[in-house]
Amino acid sequence: MLALVKTGPGPGLDLREVPSPTVGINDVLIGVHKTGICGTDLHIESWDPWAARTIHPPLVVGHEFVGEVTEVGSNVADFAPGDLVSGEGHVVCGRCRHCLAGRRHLCANTIGLGVGRDGAFAEYVVLPMTNVWHHWPGVDEEVAAIFDPFGNAVHTALAFPVLGEDVLVSGAGPIGLMATAVARHAGARNVVVSEPNAYRRELATQMGATLAIDPLERTLQSAFEELDMVEGFDVVMEMSGNPAALRSALGAMAHGGGIAILGIPTEEISLDVNQIVFNQLTLRGIYGREMYETWYKMTVMLQSGLDITPAITHRFGFRDHGAAFAAARQGDSGKVIMDWTT
Ligand code: NAD
Ligand code: ZN
Q1: What pTM was computed for the model?
Q2: Which of 46, 73, 251, 253 is deepest in the core (most CB within 10 A)?
Q3: Atom of ligand 1 lying closest to residue 265 CA
């Protein structure tokens, strides 16, 4: 099969022939239809310090996908050839305290698809059946292809109750954009999006942001008066990984508020802990998706009218992977999709 492979240490990815994955007795083999490009894939492609520490080539990259089941292992009863599915990219151990208690997102032995095992930027991908999610007939395949990052958005957006609340989404990359739509769908009063990139601020407005502001031009506090907010934000979704963004958010919270932190900083961030103590804030780290409550919520929110399609801005055939990665890397884009069927 053809796959996008990190062949050795250093920048770049090669489209090349590799053997199709072998199917174990508990595995599902999936013919890939469409994939999404994630920041993680960009890190692996450019071979930054994180990638050099983490990745052991040769490796087929990619973890955001939708496809069709083509073969199942002998223990697999719930999936059959032809089923349209996506995959949870975190393969957990199933045996640790948290896995056994059903808190699989807390597994400390997680292996990442396209990071610690061969991934989905390929004509075929294999996963344990416990990592495969059925879609409903008629689902938009582009949306289905990005259930993994959509799940990051949903996991973060539902970390604190947002009904009636004033919400700040800090960073309008693809995940912040989707979180904006989820927060509106889940009943937030105001969703303020803070994002320096004008193209992404415009997308945020399309996703339902009440107000999209440039943090380099104005303060978060300047939004309060405009929106008739009394005290500050009740809920923040930190989706930029930027130290200044987290510090600004901390200074713009209502007492008792919650900050869900998904963004991954590349450096240590110092915070004024007095703000956390005296304002009685809760900071919560978010990693991955809850298996499979997040996946259930994604499905039913889409079925009840949530629209995340404006977050998808670019489409390429897989042979144009260079152009696809370039589009994802430059800031004027939302989610970039690669099609593996053309
Ligand atoms: P992205 O890099 O496309 O988006 C980040 C956005 O933050 C960019 O649009 C950038 O312009 C914006 N930004 C930069 N400085 C800012 C500032 N001072 N204030 C507000 N916004 C600012 O990333 P993404 O794919 O949307 O992912 C969002 C974040 O979540 C990234 O940090 C990513 O590494 C992280 N992530 C975490 C998990 C997890 O499981 N915890 C999973 C996937 C991604
Ligand atoms: Zn485990």
Answers
A1: 0.98
A2: 253
A3: 32
The length of the chain is 342
Residue nearest to atom 44 of ligand 1 (CA): 263
Query: How is 178-230 classified by DSSP, letter by letter?
Result: HHHHHHHHTT-SEEEEE-S-HHHHHHHHHTT-SEEE-TTTS-SHHHHHHHT-S
**DSSP states of 19-83 as a string?**
PPPP--TTEEEEEEEEEE--HHHHHHHHT-HHHHHH--SSEE---EEEEEEEEE-TT--S--TT-
Look at residues 32, 30, 29, 68 and name the one whose alpha carbon lies nearest to residue 342.
Answer: 32
Catalytic (active site) residue 155 = no
User: Catalytic: which of 22, 33, 35, 40?
Assistant: 40
Amino acid identity, position 121: F
Each residue's pLDDT expressed in tens, for the chain with a length of 342 residues: 999 999 999 999 999 999 999 999 999 999 999 999 999 999 999 999 999 999 999 999 999 999 999 999 999 999 999 999 999 999 999 999 999 999 999 999 999 999 999 999 999 999 999 999 999 999 999 999 999 999 999 999 999 999 999 999 999 999 999 999 999 999 999 999 999 999 999 999 999 999 999 999 999 999 998 999 999 999 999 999 999 999 999 999 999 999 999 999 999 999 999 999 999 999 999 999 999 999 999 999 999 999 999 999 999 999 999 999 999 999 999 999 999 998
Q: Whose CA is closest to atom 34 on ligand 1?
A: 264
- Ligand 1 mean position, distance from CA 242 (Å): 8
H or E segment to which residue 1 belongs: none
Q: What residue's CA is closest to ligand 1, atom 23?
A: 173
Pairing of strands 111-112, 190-194: unpaired
- Ligand 1 proximal residues by C-beta, below 6 Å: 39, 152, 170-176, 194-197, 200, 215, 239-242, 244-245, 262-264, 286-288, 331
Residue tagged active-site, from 43, 90, 105, 185: 43
Phi/psi of residue 257, nearest 5 degrees = -75, 170
